[in-house]
């Protein structure tokens, strides 16, 4: 694939590009906690987007999407949102780099890869951070890695309209081979944990559905959490976000809460606690206990946070009945995309086959499954 992308670049633009590899991500546990300033436990995976990029000595940004076989060209003066949807993830990053005071000369890009779109593996963060990394490199902008992460997130807010947290861009950029990273989404302190699962595998079951509610409900969840914080602040001024709240605080004022807001907040508080506890499980190498927390996370996302959907619930329930599975849950924003499963290697083939058959029968949709390997974050392909 890399060779094809470089060949197309040379064909279209005639120069020699640098190549950047930008991965998707999984999240083991800690869902919808990032924008509540809480904790997440993601990793970069071997589903990746590749960028071929070179300066072009003009004032334009020319780009070709290898996967869509579409081309576009934009002036770098007054970069704004485009009608070409896919280009917005790129334009958003360009706008952020310019906003930070960097002069960007013209450049050409060919990009493409194998992160399934809309499957909850963060192809959008991979596009944002991959381009940011490439531009930083070819123009020697000296932007810190963490600032590239923040620019990617801002691009998502301003050009894609999703008020996402920082997890996806962080995992993309700071991912480390064979490790998960526990991120404190407030301080941005992080810690790597070896993810030693020799006879287990991370398996993603892709529902192939993306319900249209996804981005509007995502933004609604953010607002619901903020409403919960506002109420708590009347009694606990120290609560700046749900990360600072406890189940006891919530319970003490349950009557004053709208019941929906209450269960949203309770879920977030519990999920943050689960991330902490799951990290202790990893320290003890107790994958069984870790898996149990994944199931509990799914229950909370399904019943309290209500961001799951029948397809995800079906897959999580079915996985739970399989002895080869330690844990399963929906992953990412929800309303479609993937479940993440920890599956014993010896039972892997039987698991994927059984899941695919049952899913086909239930929804008449062909399930896609992926075995994810944990790789390093975005970097140059030498
Ligand atoms: C999406 C968002 F982009 C992340 O920031 C995160 O909130 C996630 O949904 C849910 O945990 O991937």
From TrEMBL:
Mg(2+) binds at residues 124, 156. The record marks 25 as: Transition state stabilizer. Residues 8-55 form the Galactokinase N-terminal domain. Residues 281-359 form the GHMP kinase C-terminal domain. Coiled coil: none annotated. Keywords: ATP-binding, Carbohydrate metabolism, Cytoplasm, Galactose metabolism, Kinase, Magnesium, Metal-binding, Nucleotide-binding, Transferase. GO terms for molecular function: ATP binding; galactokinase activity; magnesium ion binding. Its EC number is 2.7.1.6. One of its GO terms (cellular component) is cytosol. It catalyses: alpha-D-galactose + ATP = alpha-D-galactose 1-phosphate + ADP + H(+). ATP binds at residues 65, 118-124. The active site is at 168 (proton acceptor). It is found in: Cytoplasm. Substrate binds at residues 31-34, 218. Residues 88-176 form the GHMP kinase N-terminal domain. GO terms for biological process: galactose metabolic process. The keyword Iron does not apply. InterPro entries: Galactokinase (IPR000705), Galactokinase_bac (IPR022963), Galactokinase_CS (IPR019741), GalKase_N (IPR019539), GHMP_kinase_C_dom (IPR013750), GHMP_kinase_C_sf (IPR036554), GHMP_kinase_N_dom (IPR006204), GHMP_knse_ATP-bd_CS (IPR006203). Catalyzes the transfer of the gamma-phosphate of ATP to D-galactose to form alpha-D-galactose-1-phosphate (Gal-1-P). Belongs to the GHMP kinase family. GalK subfamily. This is Galactokinase. It comes from Adhaeribacter radiodurans.
């Amino acid at each position: 694939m890399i060779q094809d992308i470089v060949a197309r670049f040379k064909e279209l633009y005639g120069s020699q590009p640098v190549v950047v590899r930008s991965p998707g991500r999984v999240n083991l546990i800690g869902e919808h906690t990032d924008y509540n300033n809480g904790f997440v436990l993601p990793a970069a995976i071997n589903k990746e987007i590749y960028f071929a990029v070179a300066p072009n000595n003009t004032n334009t940004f020319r780009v070709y999407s290898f996967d869509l076989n579409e081309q576009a060209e934009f002036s770098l003066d007054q970069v704004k949102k485009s009608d070409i949807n896919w280009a917005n993830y790129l334009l958003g990053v360009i706008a952020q780099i310019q906003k930070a005071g960097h002069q960007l000369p013209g450049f050409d890009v060919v990009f493409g890869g194998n992160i399934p779109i809309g499957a909850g593996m963060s192809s959008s963060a991979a596009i944002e951070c991959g381009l940011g990394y490439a531009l930083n490199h070819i123009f020697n902008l000296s932007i810190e890695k963490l600032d590239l992460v923040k620019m990617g997130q801002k691009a998502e807010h301003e050009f894609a309209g999703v008020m996402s947290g920082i997890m996806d861009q962080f995992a993309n950029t700071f991912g480390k081979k064979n490790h998960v990273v526990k991120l404190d989404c407030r301080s941005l302190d992080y810690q790597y944990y070896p993810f030693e699962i020799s006879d287990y595998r991370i398996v993603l079951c892709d529902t192939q559905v993306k319900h249209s509610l996804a981005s509007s409900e995502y933004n609604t969840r953010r607002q619901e959490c903020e409403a919960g914080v506002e109420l708590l602040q009347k009694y606990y001024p120290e609560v700046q976000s749900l990360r600072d709240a406890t189940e006891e605080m919530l319970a003490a004022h349950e009557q004053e809460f709208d019941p929906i807001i209450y269960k949203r907040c309770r879920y977030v508080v519990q999920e943050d606690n689960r991330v902490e506890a799951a990290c202790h499980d990893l320290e003890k190498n107790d994958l069984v206990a870790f898996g149990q927390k994944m199931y509990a996370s799914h229950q909370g996302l399904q019943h309290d946070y209500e961001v799951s959907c029948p397809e995800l619930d079906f897959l999580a329930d079915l996985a739970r009945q399989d002895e080869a599975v330690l844990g399963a849950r929906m992953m990412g924003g929800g309303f479609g995309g993937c479940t993440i499963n920890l599956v014993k290697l010896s039972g892997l083939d039987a698991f994927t086959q059984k899941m695919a058959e049952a899913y086909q029968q239930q929804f008449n949709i062909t399930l896609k499954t992926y075995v994810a390997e944990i790789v390093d974050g975005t970097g140059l392909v030498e």
